[in-house]
Amino acid sequence: MKNGININDIKIGVVGAGSWGTALANLLAVKGFKIDLWVFEKEVKEQIETFAENKIFLPDFPLSSNLRPYNDMARVVSGKELVLIVVPSHVMRETVQKMSAHLSEETIVVSASKGIENKTHLTMSAVLKEVLPVIPESSFAALSGPSFAREVAQEFPTVVTVASKDEQVARYVQHVFATPYFRVYTSDDVVGVELGGAVKNVIAIAAGIIDGLGLGLNTRAALITRGLAEIRRLGTKLGANPHTFAGLAGVGDLVLTCTGSLSRNHTVGKKIGQGMKLAEILSEMRMVAEGVKTAKSVYNLSNKLGVEMPIAHEVYHILYEDISPIEAARRLMTRDLKNELDD
């Protein structure tokens, strides 16, 4: 028994073996849980079985013997008390549809994916709710916060938030994931936690562009601050608690992703600022930079709702309309003058 959780009695499946999925699965396995991990790539499954390492997505970190990889979705999610989903947002719906026939209505489903679906503009938990009607809404949870996978794998102190409509579910997930180096807070603001985790990736691309252009620290600080205002503006329009954006899933994750060298979204932006084209950048990446697709969702959703998000819109114009980053910066700086708190 640890933190009120009997490790031997809880069956957990993790869906997705990218860097973040592997890091979280291994965190749970090291804690003592027997973890079944669904792996899309056969080569990754073979690497974990042969070398106890995910050489493609999380190289140089030995994985616990409690972690067992499978390419069989039914094997991973059937009969589980808790299923953690950590797949790119653009394949969330397709992946969950494969799971749906194998889940029990008693299963707690936790999303650690960060994005907004392009066609529907739904957050990940909203996609789960739509695709998994057998699962009560109270049994869904979202895990988010400032957390690079490699640093979690290194057991660096990390602090995140888990949100659920049901306080007992949030506390249950909190205790499942909590370790001496991985502290988990709870929240009931699922929308706010998910939007903070998704939209910060778009702002991180903008921050990378600023760094790639060499525009300095003043500019980056201003961009992060005004980017947070945009995230809060969209979130409150969708019913989120504005205080959420001053927390771990808001400003915490935003600052990390806009400044950390391990940020894939910042890296994409920096290369754009240095003159590379998006298609060229993405062709060199094996892992997903969520902000690229989320930029399109945020652009369309904010226009639909009438929410002003000038930074996010300029990121969209740069990515999808080939607008010059310098021109985008000029347009942002020469907008009509206004009161800072006039949202």
TrEMBL record:
Pfam families: NAD_Gly3P_dh_C, NAD_Gly3P_dh_N. NADPH binds at residues 19-20, 114, 149, 264, 288, 290. Residues 11-169 form the Glycerol-3-phosphate dehydrogenase NAD-dependent N-terminal domain. Coiled coil: none annotated. NAD(+) binds at residues 16-21, 40, 149, 264. The keyword Transmembrane helix does not apply. Pathway: Membrane lipid metabolism; glycerophospholipid metabolism. Its main location: cytoplasm. Residues 189-328 form the Glycerol-3-phosphate dehydrogenase NAD-dependent C-terminal domain. Its EC number is 1.1.1.94. Keywords: Cytoplasm, Lipid biosynthesis, Lipid metabolism, NAD, NADP, Nucleotide-binding, Oxidoreductase, Phospholipid biosynthesis, Phospholipid metabolism. The keyword Nucleotide-binding applies. GO terms for biological process: carbohydrate metabolic process; glycerol-3-phosphate biosynthetic process; glycerol-3-phosphate catabolic process; glycerophospholipid metabolic process; phospholipid biosynthetic process. It catalyses: sn-glycerol 3-phosphate + NAD(+) = dihydroxyacetone phosphate + NADH + H(+); sn-glycerol 3-phosphate + NADP(+) = dihydroxyacetone phosphate + NADPH + H(+). One of its GO terms (molecular function) is NAD binding. Sn-glycerol 3-phosphate binds at residues 114, 145, 147, 200, 253, 263-265. Catalyzes the reduction of the glycolytic intermediate dihydroxyacetone phosphate (DHAP) to sn-glycerol 3-phosphate (G3P), the key precursor for phospholipid synthesis. This is Glycerol-3-phosphate dehydrogenase [NAD(P)+]. The lineage of its organism: Bacteria, Pseudomonadati, Thermodesulfobacteriota, Desulfobacteria, Desulfobacterales. The gene is gpsA.
